[in-house]
Fold each of these.
Amino acid sequence: MSRYMTGLVVRTEGTPAELVELRLPEIGPGQVRVRIRAAGVCHSDLSMINGTLRPPHPLVLGHEAAGEVVEVGDHVTRAKIGDHVVLNWQPACRSCWFCEHGQPWLCSTSHGVAALENGLTLDDAPVHVTLGVGAFAEQVVVPENAVIAVPPELEFDLAALLGCAILTGTGAVRNTARVAPGESVLVIGLGGVGLSAVAAARAAGAAQVIAVDVNESKKGLAEAAGATDFVASSENLSKDIRSRTSRRGADHAIECVGRAATIRAAWRATRTGGQVTVVGMGAADDMLQLSALEIFSSARILRASVYGQADTDLEIPALARDVLDGKLALGHLITDRIGLADVPAAFDRMARGEGARSVVTL
């Protein structure tokens, strides 16, 4: 087996991503080598290069992916050669305080880790991998708890989306907001995560799902996902949402952008006693301002949803079954199928708010 592969690397902060030849590490005990077959282009990858996050370099981009196990190390018990797997970029250790208290999505060994070294090298120098994965490459080496087996009948491009966009958006609705039948839901930001939240809200029985985006071309995608209303984002968003919700505001707002301005808009468009769930990951210096009086008088709940507040080992296989059973349709989420060399152009489309998910196929 070749110990070299091609990967998409950012060498230093501020430089463009480029395809380079990387030397793969030897596989160690408890590790798994996966041949990447599909990888989604996620906004978190863009955050690694646009200044929102400051990861170490050189850096292999990509984290939302699926592939086939081609090698396993000693003592591996949860994967075997030939398995089709989804990669988990925030695997739970199952032994820290958070894992033992039912919050594996906040696992102290992986939560908040932007990038790691894993033995990969470029010109004999260490290379970091995004969120411990580095999926914009032909292969990855990860610990066995970072792979989750899915049925081989599930297409790789759809399986890849389960590892981030679908799990995050669906989990925000099911696990964090806990949307109930008959409620109204506002979703702001219609990328892959936001469209997944729209679909999950309708599946949860929401009577009204109002989808919001700055790009009016997202209307068709929103309707395909199950939105009952589409609203182009504007300064009058709160007034518009209230006019559609008996003047009260939405029961739930799911913010999938990660900006103070859109969190504030979600807050204002939610009814008294409603809940705002923040899914988008924002910048450290983008400050949100709420007065002490409005926090008290509005009686609203403001929460974050990290990785869908999900136990990935349980929920990714369940989502895979839903896709195969026809309960969860994902095809509309993939608007572009591309190669590794096309990822920078996909970032440009994402920055302009175009399309839903671009998926690299290998």
Amino acid sequence: MSTFPPAVVFSAPTVTSHLFETHRQFYKELKIYHKFANELYFPECWIPHCTFAIGLNKDSLLRTFEHCLNQFQPFDGQITEIGIVKIEFVDGIHSSKTIFAKRL
């Protein structure tokens, strides 16, 4: 478990060269959309992760982090789908909408 500012709780996968190469290829294939991309997700900046919570206040951040430390168990997994998700923040509520998804 770890955090990104401001108030994001996440877990990171075991990073492999194949994972980074897949990400680089993703950016290469979608280069016409680079102007819309957040620079944190550029191949040379990207930190692979799975977000558990985002936009938490200090108390919620601490409780979430403590819960994850006490409950989270490492697991093996496989990427089976890739997608583009739009995250919206309205009146303090975070939601996401899948714009595009492709099974691998």
Amino acid sequence: MQRVFLLSTSQFIVESHSEESKLKNLLKQQFNINSRRTSRLALLSLLGALSIEKINANCGVYVTSIFSSPSNMYELEIDIFQRKTPRPFNFINSINNAISFYVADALKVNGPNLFISTDICNWSQILLPAISDLQQGVVEQALVGWCYESRRYDEYSKEGSFWLLLTRHPDTSALASLTIANKPCQGDVSNQPIITHANYYYDSVLKTFDLNSQPQSDVISVDLILNKLLVIKKLPLHKH
């Protein structure tokens, strides 16, 4: 199948007990964006996505998370339980694709805008619509994001977002090529380890696409649905 290319990556990871006011101030200071009515999950998403470089207007935004913002949903449920009318922006922020909308609006891109709910077992599925749109020429670029806001009962101490910028055209500065292959994979990737599950806040996503940290390997495979593999191959410029 037609290759697509990884142009850049970005991440924003923070302690889960960080004050939300500090996140809003950081977004204002670094990117000049006022975020008074956005959810915590949207803040974490924006702080990761806006650091991505080389984005053009014909870019789609493809976002995944376990659910919409847990803290926002908690406030919304409390209002309903107390028979109050939910506050308008709490309701708006309860819609899953509010995250991808905020990111697309901040970046001024006009491609498709999609949210898919995933968990540690199917974290890679968000890549399928992004790569499909690239291969069919629907978009020139695809911004793919994994976002996580810690829940009240979580034992984990981190939250944040991780982003990839993919393009359909070869680029001299690209980090890797991505293709989808049938399993079992043939050729020079047949003996490569296959990455399946991710850890909390999609920690394995960070590790998978941190190509320079991969041990002596130029090819990485990620398990997809429908008996497919995503094959990530470092480009020669980035071999170590």
Amino acid sequence: MSNVESVHTGRKPNVVFIIADDHREESLGASGNAIVRTPVLDGLAAEGTAFSNTHIFGGLTGAVCAPSRACVNSGKSIFNAMIGKDVMSWEHAITIRSDVKLMPQAMREAGYRTHAVGKWHNDKPSFARSFDGGDKLFFHGMSDHTEVPVQDFDPTGQYPPEREYMEHTFSTELFTNAAVDFIAQYEEKEPFYLYVAYTAPHDPRTAPEAYRSMYKEEDIPLPANFMEQHPFDTGDMTVRDEGLAGLPREAGEIRRHIADYYAMITHLDAEIGRVVEALKVKGIYDDTIIVYTADHGLSVGQHGLMGKQNVYEHSVRIPFILRGPSVPAGGRQAAPVSNIDIFPTLASLCQIPLPNEVEGVSMLPVLKGETDRVRHVVCSAYRDVQRMATDGRWKLIRTYYSPATKTGVDRIQLFDLQNDSWETADLFDDPQHHEVLLQLAGELKKWMHEYSDILIETPVLPTSEG
């Protein structure tokens, strides 16, 4: 493990922070997936540390992307970082409170030159107070990958819609080009913080043919938790994402979707390789911390679902890879991590002041080998219909009925992730696991109080023990 200062310059390390859209942790070669091809990300994981048990905090609308990105950039819960707490409120999903200091803002105040490329799915004032510069800025949730409405950096911070122009270079390549150009042209004495936010592998999953042809649908195995239809109402069974495939789910169609998904990921991986190469050509690769993560995962046929509007592992567990100065090589950590912990971890590595209001915790003690975990459990929320808690082995999912939308059901599930990583065997009714159930229910209730959950007065267990 090297010193926090760059090995060549003696200054704080540069940071390249990469965040993907819809990339679940399981869909990485480094995570044991033998089908998807991700040699660049696998290499970063081998040269650094991968936190394999990282979960999103969640969201209160179907657009989980925006609040999840707010959690990453604020280190705070969705209940305390966003404007309002109304379920299904677009303002709550998008708008970060003006008094919340964000990760790039803190880096900027600590002397970093902050530069953004790609997607910013939160409010424009939060972007403006965070970045010194930017290029190919995308202030939307999604678009066709060859019709991308972008803006140039606006020093006024206004970013009115009329400034947008259309780019037809494939989004992943478009954003990579901008990132590579920034690295190549950077000559300032201050270290830089480069935020690269891709829209891949989000649909429409239309990877270039050279990558799509790598995956033959007939060679794609169905996941062990494939179902033709989810057995109960999770609260959002008719959201847009769930209409991307027919019902009941058909094996051939799901294989095609998985092939499309993997092709997008492999293309993304190759483009990240160009960013890595640009750092090497510039001679600053060893002076730069690279972070790779995603806003959330995706079902793509698992549990009979297609989207991310649930709290199964495929939707709430994300990659979190660190590589660079002060990061041990070859580490794979199973410590429970929340995405609100990414900001404090990076702040620790760069030795910059952390805002007092940050609710996440640094994983630096785990990186240093001082402990095997700093959290006992992590939890996630989805709307007013789902909550989950996991200690890494055991996982409780609580589904509620929503009077507001008349969706969901009153149900609890318990899974042994160590022996059932696909979450196929519900152990809720097994008496021998009753104590584990009560323990996790207690942890979830504590979490709901700690972070001011909107369901704070709602029992976790539908019994006197809840």
